[in-house]
Each structure stands twice: as structure tokens, then as C-alpha cells.
Amino acid sequence: QVQLVESGGGSEQSGGSHRLSCVHSGLPGGVHCMAWFRHTPGKKREGVAAIADSATKYAESVKGRFTISQDNTKNTLYLQMNGLKPEDTAMYYCAADSYTDMPLSNIEYRYWGQGTQVTVSS
Predict the structure, then answer these.
(1) Lowest CB count within 10 Å: 8, 68, 97, 106, which one?
(2) What is the three-class DSSP state of 75?
(3) What is the pLDDT of residue 113?
(4) What average pLDDT does the structure give for the chain?
(5) Which pLDDT tens digit goes with each residue over 23-69?
(6) What is d(CA 32, CA 29) in angstroms, rounded to the nearest whole number?
(7) In this structure, is the dihedral angle defined by the CA atoms of residues 9, 28, 62 and 88, taken in order, positive or negative?
(8) CB count, 10 Å around CB of 1?
(9) Phi, psi dihedral angles at 12 (to 5 degrees)
(10) Are 9 and 117 in contact (CB under 8 A)?
(11) Burial of 63 (0-12, 13-18, 19+ CB in 10 A)
(12) What is the C-alpha to C-alpha distance for residues 76 and 44, in angstroms, rounded to an integer?
């Protein structure tokens, strides 16, 4: 059974930092692309960052502020968020699939976590 469990959400002041974690288990072989998405009610879901092996990709809105990484020994995906802005407020989800080009838009990932809420106040 595939499980992706996010943690680390919470409230933060504008300009602050936060780190999200996603512990995964049961992913089939070949599923090596992992990503973070976020969603705010009334807005379209946005791909934030993706990683496949050592390659990474970021949305323009977070480039230079967020860092995606993973620790394969712990089956954990991370999202380090620095310089947080109120517009970063959202439910953050981790996702996994076998894509090689780390898509962040117009694509559906097979495996998803339940999400963790991040709220940034000004």
C-alpha cells in the first residue's frame, strides 16, 4: 500500500522559514519523481517544485526561496521554504510518479499525500 504523509505545516510570519516533510512508503519501483504542489480554495492547484534523482525544477513563484530535497535512506521528501510571503499560504501536498521530466503543470501524479497547511501572515 502506497502512503505519503506530509508534516511540518503551521503558521509563520512573512519573511520566515519553514520546512515540510513527506514520508513515503510502498512506492512501486520506477517511481522516482517526487513533487510538491499547493492549493488555495478558489485557485488552481500549483506545482511548486519537483525532484528526480538529483535534478530539480521549481515554479517561478518560489525559485530562489524554496528548496526541494530528499533523503532516500529515510524515504523522506523535504521542502525548505525561506522568505515566506502571505501568497505562499496554501495546503501543501507531496506527490509521486515515474515522470522523467518532473512536470509541474498540466499533468496528474498517481500518488498523493493528504496535505499539510501552511499559513503566512503579513
Answers:
(1) 106
(2) coil
(3) 97
(4) 96
(5) 999 999 989 999 999 999 999 999 999 999 889 999 999 999 999 99
(6) 8
(7) negative
(8) 4
(9) -145, 150
(10) yes
(11) exposed
(12) 26
Q: Residue 22 corresponds to which amino acid?
A: C
Total residue length of the chain: 122
What is the layout of strands, in order, in the sheet containing 66-71?
A: 3-7, 18-25, 76-81, 66-71
Place of cell 509563520: 12
pLDDT for 107: 82
Cell 502571505, located at residue: 86
Question: In the chain, which ranges are E strands?
Answer: 3-7, 10-13, 18-25, 33-39, 46-52, 55-58, 66-71, 76-81, 90-97, 111-112, 116-121
Q: For the beta carbon of residue 4, count every other beta carbon within 10 angstroms.
A: 23
Q: For residue 108, give the C-alpha cell.
A: 496528474
